[in-house]
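Review form for a predicted model. The reviewer records the input and the model, then writes brief findings.
Reviewer: anonymous (R2)
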Amino acid sequence: MKTVPTLALIILCCLSPLAQAQPPKTGAAKAPGDGFMAIGGNLTIDPPTNLYDPNAEHVIKVRVGDVVQLQIRYPIVPPMPKAVKISDDKKSIQLIASTLTSSEVAILKQDPQTNGKIGVGYVHVWVRPTRAGKHRAELQIKLYDNTTKNVFYMFEVQGDQ
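Model under review:
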């Protein structure tokens, strides 16, 4: 029978330490070369705030290690955002990533618009709190005319998970 040696080879390979899956490493502070980062907490998505008329500071309640997505809405009129920087009073809010959505311009018609966007773009910023306590973070959004708009966020961070 030809199946016995094949079956024996499969069993041998499955028992080999090289064939066993290794558990993923967690708690990485920086993304490795492949661009992926282990996330050990929850994802919190904060509602959008306006760049030129920010909401009053509200408190975002999270735990250490959670990831928070902050969204800043801006009109599609020059100058538009080109870069984002974050600073906080206690150096305890870590910037993970930031992106700009593609801007859309809509032509107004009498017919209803279906996409819900009329000349609006978004800056998305992902941050992670690294220490418990109350923290105030400032997003500094640099515009194409080299001016800067600041948007403030308050975080109430619970201890380790």
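Findings: The beta strands are 43-45, 49-50, 59-63, 67-75, 81-88, 93-100, 120-129, 133-143, 148-158.
Further findings: The helical segments are 3-15.
Recommendation: see findings above.
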